[in-house]
Amino acid sequence: MIMMKGKKILLAVTGGIAAYKSAELIRLFIKNDAQVKVLMTKNAQEFITPLTLQTLSSHPVYRETFSLIKDFDIAHIALAQEADILVIAPATANIIGKIAAGLADDLLTTVVMATKAPVLICPSMNTNMYENVIVKENIQKLTSRGYHMMEADSGELACKSEGVGRLPELSDIVEKVKSILAEKDLAGETVLVTAGPTREPLDPVRFITNYSSGKMGYALASRARRRGASVILISGPTVLSVPRGVTYVPVSTAVEMRHAVMKNLKQSTIVIKSAAVADYRPSVCADAKIKKKDGPWTLYLERNPDIIAEIGKKKKERILIGFAMESEDLIKNAKAKMLAKNMDLIVANDVKQKDAGFQSDTNIVKILDRDGGIEELPVMDKMDVADRILDRAKMIITRRRKVA
Ligand code: CTP
Predict the structure, then answer these.
(1) Are 14 and 33 within one domain?
(2) What are the pocket residues of ligand 1 if the criterion is a CB atom closer than 6 Å to any ligand atom?
(3) 149 lies in which domain range?
(4) How far is the centre of ligand 1, averaged over its atoms, from the C-alpha of 323 (Å)?
């Protein structure tokens, strides 16, 4: 059974009408044997008194008052460090926007910035605000950065309108907290993920690349981190936000990627090569911009290092997972790649399928293992595909350690 016994929950209450529900939420957490400390923003105190929340939590309430700002310089670090989870309920559009923008101008935002604990955000606001495109973008950004985001419920709102925007049911928030606290099955592992395309320059203004968006690799990094692993994300150029809590190593060319991978290989227990590495690079990169001339132009390319093949040769106990993108004979080709490069698993996708591949938020993959197993997954969000891949890695680790 998933427990929260003895877990330290820091509940942050922000200034929305649903702030009154935080009193009941504290009671529910305590009923589940958690320790609760409460932090209130200035506006939250307009909706419910600190005395109520202090009485229910049996701890002084941390709050923004001018006279205490100085003490909070230290308090925010202690609060950020000791919490097993930070729950923001209700979370207003304002606090979601501030976190997404990276602001840290009050106690709550500094705690959010300083904590390494999982952060669960439970939005509550008027329907039009919840559906506002800026709020939606902020929610999406925080989700992609590894923040846990609950969806607001639908129903009658304080402003008497019907719609989406209600604070999620308190029992659902409690369940969500339990599942987040239980999700640490990769604690102790170091997951190295490569993501995105590489860029192979031919002169100072031009390069060869591919359409990889990096979404699959970033999803893997985000989910591995969420499940308690230390994560090293080595990425070619993308427009994505780096998930919180991961060590980020930006690279550009395949040669740089190889160097970064080899440097970080030793401490890694799981290596997932989701990057779309260019197989070739221009033989020469001109110092100055190449000027056009009459007639055709021959560009000479040479092979890039095959990074995954090199890891395969020295992989030892670590789990090695590769990707294969094929346009024909998917299974046959993917299997051959897995065996030739000493991978434990290969994630194969068919470039010709809709809703799959480089730019999409979803993917349709088959996970092949060395025993001949083929797990065919339906169309899924890349975050969910990431979890399925990590589940398989975890299974192999557990099996190997049992045998050893
Ligand atoms: N890969 C790598 N280094 C390269 C090229 C690819 O590490 N220089 C990795 C990718 O990250 C991916 C897997 O290898 O995990 C893809 O296998 P590969 O056989 O290189 O695929 P393709 O490059 O698509 O091969 P082919 O062109 O032969 O289909």
Answers:
(1) yes
(2) 254, 273, 275, 277, 279, 304, 306-308, 322-325, 337
(3) 8-181
(4) 7
For the stretch 241-283, pLDDT in tens is 899 889 999 999 999 999 999 999 999 999 999 999 999 999 9
Ligand 1 atom having least distance to the Cα of 323: 15
Same domain, 170 and 196: no
Catalytic (active site) residue 285: no
83 plus 145 within the same structural domain: yes
d(CA 198, CA 293): 28
In a domain, 3, yes or no: no
CA distance 330 to 388: 20
Q: Which of 159, 182, 351, 374 is catalytic?
A: 159
Q: Are both 40 and 99 inside the same structural domain?
A: yes
Q: Is 198 a residue whose pLDDT tops 80? A: yes
Is 309 in the same domain as 326? yes
Which ligand 1 atom lies nearest to the CA of residue 325? 24
Containing 82, the helix (H) or strand (E) segment is helix 69-82
Can you tell me the distance from the alpha carbon of 338 to that of 347, in angstroms, rounded to the nearest whole number? 9
Instruction: Please give the model's pTM, rounded to 2 decimal places.
Output: 0.79
Three-class secondary structure of residue 393 per DSSP: helix
Mutational pocket test of ligand 1: of 279, 301, 331, 367, the residue with most ligand atoms within 8 Å of the beta carbon = 279
Cα–Cα dist 367/364, whole Å: 10
